[in-house]
Automatic annotation (TrEMBL):
<dbReference type="Pfam" id="PF00067">
    <property type="entry name" value="p450"/>
</dbReference>
<dbReference type="GO" id="GO:0006700">
    <property type="term" value="P:C21-steroid hormone biosynthetic process"/>
</dbReference>
<dbReference type="GO" id="GO:0071375">
    <property type="term" value="P:cellular response to peptide hormone stimulus"/>
</dbReference>
<keyword id="KW-0479">Metal-binding</keyword>
<dbReference type="InterPro" id="IPR036396">
    <property type="entry name" value="Cyt_P450_sf"/>
</dbReference>
<comment type="similarity">
    <text>Belongs to the cytochrome P450 family.</text>
</comment>
<dbReference type="GO" id="GO:0008203">
    <property type="term" value="P:cholesterol metabolic process"/>
</dbReference>
<keyword id="KW-0472">Membrane</keyword>
<keyword id="KW-0496">Mitochondrion</keyword>
<keyword id="KW-0560">Oxidoreductase</keyword>
<dbReference type="InterPro" id="IPR050479">
    <property type="entry name" value="CYP11_CYP27_families"/>
</dbReference>
<keyword id="KW-0503">Monooxygenase</keyword>
<keyword id="KW-0755">Steroidogenesis</keyword>
<dbReference type="GO" id="GO:0004497">
    <property type="term" value="F:monooxygenase activity"/>
</dbReference>
<dbReference type="GO" id="GO:0016705">
    <property type="term" value="F:oxidoreductase activity, acting on paired donors, with incorporation or reduction of molecular oxygen"/>
</dbReference>
<dbReference type="GO" id="GO:0006704">
    <property type="term" value="P:glucocorticoid biosynthetic process"/>
</dbReference>
<keyword id="KW-0408">Iron</keyword>
Length: 418
């Protein structure tokens, strides 16, 4: 039986795993366990050596058996019915917070076809990651994998494990994670960020309250952050804009937004159901999910074809992807130009990077706004440092980032919380 391990950091009730779809709202409630109170991952409220419940059984240092991990019930299908009945998929963070409070910082859960071990304490999480080694085995997003199999698409880095995962990951790191790559696509992110801020400024001027230049507006940032993340991801990956911030987005862009939203919304419940069975009975949930993925792949295919045409044109003019002075053509252009992955693998990885990068960008940004909003003195310090750094950078985003350690620290801290 395959066991999924998820982690919850700093009593937030969110999960950190390769399941990137939790999208939980920011929470700062304390997590009360059988052993006392957990605040920011530290146990408080009891004297040394005093413990009850879950923690007491492990104070002798002996490795406990898997069966001794507390759980929410052995019948996965009964638990799944409860999830649907109580709408836990939409409030998963609250369910996890309640369960950590009741069972302690490690618990098991059977839901439908999935079995998971949920971990909260950073020390336990660190030990888990250290034990994974170079070839970790992570949870397979089965609905995504089933779609690839029935449509005969290659699988990307999100759906691989072991040596195959590592080989793709090392190639992608060169175009996504390395400093030289980040320096290339930072101007693209800056362009989208400027348009995003301009759009918000126009909305505040039009709908806000108060005097001119001092207007305020209360809004739910989630939809706008989702669009920002999608526009920025596509610009970096494909090297072209999809026009989500234009005054009248194209029908193609609107359909693409719908497809990504539908895919993300239908994934969580499908994680706990057998996709092949749903496919056989033509369940509406599976049909929606597969149709959304079909549109996402169609959208990616069109951009890959345009990228291939641009690459062919540039080769005809004698330029090469990655050469000094060459125009940056996005992650897609770099991968195609270097030819280290087949076209099928490029399409698979590009599509999954785009789909997996939306929530994982939008949710941390919302966490950051939440934390900065309730810590105005920190917000002002970050703002002043960013303004000063930008003034000294002469319009270079890379230099501006290097001169804003508080901004980097904010992002790093937020990522550790979600």
């Amino acid at each position: 039986m395959y066991i999924r391990v998820t982690v919850c950091i700093r009593a937030q009730g969110t999960r950190g795993s390769r399941n990137l779809l939790c999208g939980a709202a920011p929470q700062r409630a304390l997590c009360l366990t059988a052993a006392g109170t957990v605040v920011d991952g530290k146990l408080e409220g009891r004297k040394r050596g005093e413990s009850t419940g879950v923690r007491k059984r492990g104070v002798d240092g002996r490795v406990r058996s898997f069966e001794e991990i507390p759980h929410t019930g052995r019948n996965g299908w009964v638990n799944l019915v409860k999830f649907f009945r109580e709408d836990r998929f939409r409030h998963l963070h609250k369910h996890m917070e309640r369960t950590f409070n009741a069972l302690g910082p490690i618990y098991r859960e059977h839901v439908g076809t999935q079995s998971s071990v949920n971990i909260m304490l950073p020390s336990d999480i660190g030990e888990l990651f250290r034990a994974e080694g170079l070839h970790p085995r992570r949870m397979t997003l089965q609905p995504w994998a089933t779609h690839r199999e029935i449509r005969q698409h290659s699988k990307g880095v999100f759906l691989k494990n072991g040596e195959e995962w590592r080989a793709d990951r090392l190639l992608l790191n060169k175009e996504v994670m390395m400093t030289s790559a980040v320096k290339c696509f930072l101007p693209l992110l800056d362009e989208v960020a400027r348009d995003f801020c301009r759009m918000l400024r126009v909305r505040v001027d039009r709908e806000g309250r108060g005097e001119e230049r001092k207007r305020s507006l209360t809004l739910d940032p989630s939809p706008d952050l989702f669009r920002f993340a999608l526009e920025a991801s596509c610009h970096v990956i494909y090297g072209e804009r999809i026009g989500l911030f234009s005054s009248s987005p194209s029908m193609e862009s609107q359909k693409f937004i719908w497809a990504v939203e539908e895919m993300l919304a239908t994934t969580p419940p499908l994680l706990y159901l057998p996709p092949r069975l749903l496919l056989r009975v033509r369940a509406p949930l599976w049909t929606k999910h597969a149709s959304a993925w079909d549109h996402i792949f169609s959208h990616a295919e069109a951009r890959i074809q345009r990228g291939y045409q641009r690459l062919s044109s540039s080769k005809g003019l004698g330029s090469k992807a990655g050469a000094p002075g060459a125009q940056y053509t996005g992650v897609l252009g770099q991968l195609m130009g270097k030819g280290q992955l087949s076209l099928d693998l490029i399409k698979a990885n590009i599509t999954e990077l785009m789909a997996g990068g939306v929530d994982t960008t939008a949710v941390p940004l919302q966490f950051a706004l939440f934390e900065l909003g309730r810590n105005p003195e920190v917000q002002e310090m970050v703002r002043q440092q960013v303004r000063a750094s930008w003034a000294q950078a002469g319009g270079d985003p890379q230099k501006a980032l290097q001169g804003a350690p508080l901004l980097k620290g904010t992002v790093k801290e937020i990522l550790s919380c979600c």
